[in-house]
What we know:
Layout: H1 2-20, E1 30-34, E2 41-48, E3 54-61, E4 70-76, E5 79-85, E6 101-104, E7 108-116, E8 122-131, E9 137-138, E10 140-147
Antiparallel strand pairs: 1-8, 2-7, 2-10, 3-6, 3-8, 4-5, 4-7, 8-9
Amino acid sequence: MKANLSRNLVATTALLAGLTGTPSALAQPLFETLGTGAGATDRYTVTCGAGTFRLSGTVTDLVPATPSLVSMQFSKGSGATNTTDFSDGPLANPAPSAVANTIGGGPGDYTVLVDKAGGGAENYMMDVECKDINYAPLPTTVLLTQDL
């Protein structure tokens, strides 16, 4: 089901690009679940087009809260950065609670990993967005490539 969500996002993005004659729509938050195993990891390929200067992102640990925290790492080439949601499951307000993090790298493919250290399923919200040199949002394509 998670893979279908990502495929639908990519298909919708491609359809919008075809209808408007421009690249994909701006990024939207993705809601996913990490499996019950300790160290479960979801892997994404995020593609940023021409004019991209950086990739920015946040991750939010949603309910149910388990003892493990949800983290996100993103990398391109030799650059890498990490952010963790230390709130462990906002109960009333699922707004992003992790500090946004940014990595420079220009246009191309970035690898984004979302993981946890402990056992138990974890729901999360991930929001990543390609940005130009002035932090203006640019078209962003997100593809789930590993779902554990």
